[in-house]
Amino acid sequence: MLYAPAETTPVVGLRREIDRLLQGTSGSRPNGRSEWTPPVDIRETEHELTFAVELPGIKPEDVEVTAQDGVLMIRGERSDEGEEGRYHLVERNVGPFMRHFHLPQGVDTDKIDANFEHGMLHVRIQKAALPQPKKIRIRVGTHAGSPARQGNGRGESRQESPKKLAGAHQSK
């Protein structure tokens, strides 16, 4: 039998053909399985980053999400175990996958939430509250805690003692 692949756009067909050609080279594993890359959409709002990963046919327990040193890692495996018979066309990827993303500054890796529903993995990462600049009040007048002094140019103070000043007034 001859089956024509159902492609929605020429680009999708070209990508699948390139993936198929490359599977026999660098991505091949000893057991005949190859690594593949699930598509991901990344959306940013004012409060969070959201990663939507397409993982149809994969069980949630076969997926692992980790964050370490500013890198979000999503890995897992799609198995074809239990499916018997002769295939005429295979377009679905089987085997392990891994995606990693360098997270930007200002996200709170302690507040990561992952939800798996209808073959979609949604990972939400809250943005951290960024420190706001502190406004410093500027006072007018002398330096706080020290009286105004006049210098004589040699680093010495010219401030007269109260006794000297009182004696000067008496002698006049």
Topology record:
Blueprint: H1 10-23, E1 40-44, E2 48-54, E3 63-68, E4 71-78, E5 95-102, E6 107-117, E7 120-127, H2 162-171
Antiparallel strand pairs: 1-2, 2-7, 3-4, 4-5, 6-7
What features would you describe in this structure?
The termini are far apart. This protein is α+β, with helices and mostly antiparallel strands and about 170 residues long. The strands form two sheets. It has a four-stranded antiparallel sheet with strand order 1-2-7-6, with no helix packed on it. The chain has a three-stranded antiparallel sheet with strand order 3-4-5, with no helix packed on it. Strand 3 (about 65-70) and strand 4 (about 70-80) form a beta hairpin. It is elongated and about 90 Å long. The longest helix has 14 residues, at about 10-25. About 10% of the residues are buried. The protein has helices at about 10-25, 160-170; strands at about 40-45, 50-55, 65-70, 70-80, 95-100, 105-115, 120-125. Among the domains are: about 1-35, no CATH class; about 35-80 and about 90-125, Sandwich (Immunoglobulin-like).
Approximate helicity band: 10-25%
The beta-strand count equals 7
* Gross CATH architecture of one domain: Sandwich
Ranges where pLDDT stays below 50 over 5 or more residues in a row are: 25-32
- The first-level CATH class of one domain is given as Mainly Beta
Largest sheet: 4 strands, antiparallel
Provide the structure class.
alpha+beta
- Could you tell me the radius of gyration in angstroms? 35 Å
Strand content: 25-35%
Distance between the termini: 126 Å
